[in-house]
């Protein structure tokens, strides 16, 4: 166990010194900005910083001041020290990657109080002075020796950054005519209106006109110029929206305040629906704080216990979406409980068969591997521990789950325990269907619309995001 120990006033002598060395990392700047609220673009906006006088991102000045405080509070004098006064002169900027040595040296002692004055100096790797000053402290008079407190791990995550990238990619594309099915609550109506305002969709609101207008009035949303198709109830709204799609009047459906089963019932109708030769499936897109990229999970909402042929379509649907989102060679992890093919666990057999189908060109556009357990699919360290050597293991873009129950649990656990944000879309029909949860916020709805918009333009032009 490591200990932290002070020097009492009587133990301190003129000329005593202590120091620490730190390398400035991006996380230091971000964490200091979050703690202080100081978002000066010189520190947090690289484009601005490179056009500023220093031509680089620099640390907050008081980051160095905080390091001086750390030496005083932990080394010299150490625990029990009370800060009275500090003056600082900032001589040079501290940039990313700079190594800063902070040194404090005892200059004066006053036995009457007991006060200690210390010279404070911060030097960079070139031995240039970046900060200098003096501190006056009340030194401790009693000895303190305590176990050094272990600090918690800090993980910085810019919420919505990956979803913002989707909406940015979609912003250069033409808006898509979209039937918004029964948008009779503030959240779904606001999401549709905002997507329209951002030029992602041309919303056509399908539902009881009086309810839609009342919802808009209560939420203070302007429906000027937005077409409303008046139908008596949610069931009729789903049927009319599907009819609009079959007539070629809309290229996307968006779920409003309506149950998923009620929305999809007319979609899957063999005679009047939107079915194709490919099985429909749902894809969750998750922005997870501790995962380095967007993660797609399928199928966690439509197919209960898919057989091999259905899983083939689920995989292909997810790959097509990933390609549309700009992922050049999507890495597909086929999940099971273990990594070896075991006849008593059918999902391992299906995984191996799907890999062979990809080898034979029955699945195209992605790189498949499986069976893989969840940890080996998302963690390189876990995969290496088990001796798994694979381009997919630990770096998956897509997780294909054995069945709906497993997929739904994984997705919900990531959302509610890992802090993930989720967007959702249904694929395999004639047109994409934005299928969000009633608990999803506007950000998730916009991201879902952006995915559908990117997919539509990808199928039309073959251009990736």
Termini gap = 52 Å
The CATH architecture of the domain at 276-428 can be given as 3-Layer(aba) Sandwich
Helix percentage: 25-40%
Q: What's the gyration radius in Å?
A: 29 Å
List the strand order in the largest sheet. Answer: 10-9-8-11-18-17-12-13-16-14-15
What's the number of helices? 15
Overall mean pLDDT stands at 93
What is the CATH class name of the domain at 276-428?
Answer: Alpha Beta
What would the principal axes of the Cα set say about the shape? elongated
Low-confidence stretches: none
**Main β-sheet: number of strands, strand sense, barrel status?**
11 strands, mixed
Task: Give the class from helix and strand content and strand pairing.
Answer: alpha/beta
The strand count comes to 18
Instruction: Report the CATH superfamily of the domain at 276-428.
Output: Isopropylmalate Dehydrogenase
Q: In what range is the share of β-strand residues? A: 15-25%
Could you tell me the CATH topology label of the domain at 276-428. Isopropylmalate Dehydrogenase
Written account of the structure:
The protein has 465 residues and is α/β, with parallel strands linked by helices. Among the domains are: 145 residues, Hotdog Thioesterase (Thiol Ester Dehydrase, Chain A); 153 residues, 3-Layer(aba) Sandwich (Isopropylmalate Dehydrogenase), CATH 3.40.718.10. The chain contains 15 helices and 18 strands. It has an 11-stranded mixed sheet with strand order 10-9-8-11-18-17-12-13-16-14-15, with helices on both faces. A 5-stranded antiparallel sheet has the order 2-4-5-6-3, covered by helices on one side. Helix 8 packs parallel to helix 9 and helix 10 packs across helix 15. It is elongated, with a radius of gyration of 29 Å. The mean pLDDT is 93.
